[in-house]
Amino acid sequence: MKYVDEFRNPELSRRLIQAVLGLGKRMTVMEVCGTHTMAISRSGLRPLLAPAVDLLSGPGCPVCVTSEADIARAIALAELPDIILATFGDMMKVPGPQGTLLDAAARGAQVKVVYSPLEALKLAQQRPEKRVVFLGVGFETTAPAVAATLITAKEQNVFNFYVLSLHKMVPPALRALVEQEDFRVEGFILPGHVSAVIGTRPYIFLAEEYGIPCVITGFEPTDILKAIYLLLTMEEPAVEVEYTRAVRPEGNPKAVEMMERVFEPCGAEWRGLGRIDGSGMRIREEFSAHDASLWEVETPPVLGDKRCRCGDVLCGRIRPLDCPLFARTCTPESPVGPCMVSSEGTCASYYLYEEAH
Fold first, then answer.
1. What radius of gyration, in Å, describes the C-alpha atoms of the chain?
2. What would the pLDDT profile of 106-143 be if each residue is shown by its tens digit?
3. In the predicted model, what is the mean pLDDT of the chain?
4. Do residue 202 and residue 157 come from a single domain?
5. Residue 75: which H helix or E strand, with range?
6. Last residue of some domain: 241, 261, 285?
């Protein structure tokens, strides 16, 4: 497959590994995106590059960083009368104070897995007697599609379609991360999909204010290895693009315009990082008729399992193997925390591909 197979070339990967190790340098690097985390684990890159490159995972899984309070709110909405909650499949098993969405469905709530917000809109058109709430979870990658769907719902007068926006923006979270006292990362592998939308400018502060080199890269082994080589050989901190076949410095202005037309920045709660000002996406007043966050619902107090270390994993403080629940109490079949649930979760990637059990 063009633009994929050539970036999986084993011989080229071996040469890149030798080039990285041959530099004789050491660096702690964080891959921000959950898809990168899965690719690194699946390709076995972490042990091949150690100890020269210490690869840590960051808060780049939107399911994983969703707070327990937001999960509780989604479940409370799902259990209201005449509601169908439409969600991506990854959210079904994320634990909240009252269980999971899967548990809510077992109790009688109507929860439907969809593959796009447009599918949820179509469901609302097919079921006019129901209120259909789409659970909007994701970063700048998915927000433009949700924005376009809300515009369509308004234009077509689909008054029974709503969105609970839990969307988040990556750059404010990275600022909050680097300002933590125990932050120890020396370089960032930045997300390819998010960057295809927002471009390079939103990350410039990492290089200019904090002196951290950054490379936006793709998801194949040679993409990631080339990004690491670029980080190690960068003379001055900058934001470089390895993933030139998909990412332009200016990003996708039309997608950004669509996103900004429907959403405005707000504070948001991130698992592991707490509340971050300006990191969430709230539906603008123009589209408030479709905003499920305006509904009042009762939610139970958030207690959580204090033994679960998902928050620390998401901040790069520990690896999944350091969590006392990993591969014991917490498995993909019976997850305690969201990092074991999502297909982009760090714990899930370690469980599947690294020294798990």
1. 20
2. 999 999 999 999 999 999 999 999 999 999 999 999 99
3. 95
4. no
5. helix 68-78
6. 241
State pLDDT tens for residues 272-300.
999 999 999 999 999 999 999 999 999 98
Query: 217 Cβ partners below 8 Å, 6+ apart?
Result: 36, 189, 190, 192, 223, 224, 226, 227, 242, 243
CA 194 to chain centre: 9
- C-alpha neighbours within 13 Å on the C-beta side of residue 84: 20
Residues 82 and 120 in one domain: yes
Does residue 227 share a domain with residue 86?
no
Residue 187 lies in a domain: yes
306 has a pLDDT exceeding 90: no
The string of pLDDT tens digits covering residues 87-112 is 999 999 999 999 999 999 999 999 99
Q: In terms of domains, do 157 and 276 share one?
A: yes
Pair (84, 218) in one structural domain: no
Q: What is the DSSP string of 174-229?
A: HHHHHTSTT----EEEE-HHHHHHH-SGGGHHHHHTT---EEE--SSHHHHHHHHH
* Same structural domain, 215 and 230: yes
| 20 and 81 in a common domain | no
CA distance 272 to 102: 24
324 in the same domain as 218: no
Phi, psi of 333 (to 5 degrees): -75, -30
Q: Is the model's pLDDT at 152 over the cut of 60?
A: yes
For residue 26, count CB atoms less than 10 angstroms from its CB and return exposed for 0-12, middle for 13-18, buried for 19 or more.
exposed
CATH of the domain at 19: 3.40.50.11750
The rounded Cα 85 to chain-centroid distance in angstroms is 21
Is pTM beyond 0.90 here? yes
Containing structural domain, residue 138: 63-169+252-294
